[in-house]
Amino acid sequence: MGVGGMLRIGTQRLGREEQMSKSRYPGIERLSSGRYRVRVTWNDPKTGKRRDQKKVIVATSMAEASSQRELLRIQLLTGGTTPEHRLRLRQYASSWMRGKIPTLKPSTRDKYAVVLDHHILPALGDYYVDAITPQDVLRWRDAQNAKASTVNSRLRVLRTLLRDAQAQLGLHRDPCARVRTLPEEPTVGNRLKPEQLRQVLGHLQEDEPQWYPLFLTMALTGARFGEVSALQWSDIDEDAGVIWIRRAQSQGRVGTTKTGKVRDVPLPLPLMEVLKQHRQRLVRDQAPGLSEGLVFPSRVGTYLRNSSLRKPLGRALEAAGVSERFTVHGFRRTWNNLLRQVASGAITRSMIGHETEEMFLHYSHIERDEKQSAVERALALVDGPKVEHRVEGSPLGDDDRNAGGSETTRND
Prior knowledge:
Blueprint: E1 28-30, E2 35-43, E3 50-58, H1 62-77, H2 89-100, H3 106-124, H4 134-142, H5 148-169, H6 194-207, H7 212-221, H8 225-228, E4 236-237, E5 242-245, E6 248-250, E7 253-255, E8 263-266, H9 269-285, H10 310-319, H11 330-342, H12 345-352, H13 357-363, H14 368-392, H15 398-401
Antiparallel strand pairs: 1-2, 2-3, 4-5, 5-8, 6-7
Helix pairs in contact: 2-3, 6-7, 6-10, 7-9, 7-11, 11-12, 11-14, 12-13
């Protein structure tokens, strides 16, 4: 059997004296009693040193002995990994996810699972992990029927998966290393102008009163939906005038915030009044979820899902004449934009929630009164002098809440 590269096959007689017959197969000698001696000389992949391996095997024919010798050669060159032990991407991804689950936020786990099950494994799942090439990844990327930002998000999951595989399985290369993300269109929209925010909140207050407290909390804190929907009444500190953002939930699974940090955001007086009335209604109706302390429970007392907000928000946007794309997450972007206009980047990031330990330490010095002042100025952008007066003065009364027009955003 011909070999090349770094293999050198020896053909001399080895071992104890025994009747043998020379073989026309290099590196294989037939012994008596249907046994064969195979020999392979190779460079150890771990040390680079030349090594010699001899083994006596049992085979029914010279061809079978040759096959076993080739298997031995592969074992030696790959450090013992045989075709039977090579992992397909589907197998590796399954064990990879089991190891990742304890370290991932619920929303990230869901994202990874969807991307793997629906977009990566159907195309690449049967490939051996060590056989995936950059060309395979490129073909997979270019076959994705989605916008660039979505394709790039899927590519990031595949890149994370294969980088871990390279480290854990000792692969010689990362097939994603040179595969670039697709150019994306600049992100536009998904935020409201101050007058649009005022109108949308007004319609929510008038036409969707059961949803209004939740939307107002998102609009005036900039907190993520998962954080707001996980709020408990113990997180609302009226004496200090703050809301503590301690946790987040996704699909009913509760974990830390996205950054893993606890932060406090100002509780404006208009929002405080709305939340008081909201709690009174929950107590009066003995709403499910009240005993668990949830501020915004679903009808059956569980955590809300993001999808449940789409219809009421859609109706309010239509009533306000907003035709541009705007999602639940747009409230966070809108509030961030308002704060950016009236406060320093440090104050804005301390309230919105930053993503790295460095940023957390850098902005941890921001005082509470600085945040409150920024909120008052942001409210003034939305509702002018009226909102600023309400923040400084008495909370809203029933007459104010039903006065129409600009009053709706006093609770904003």
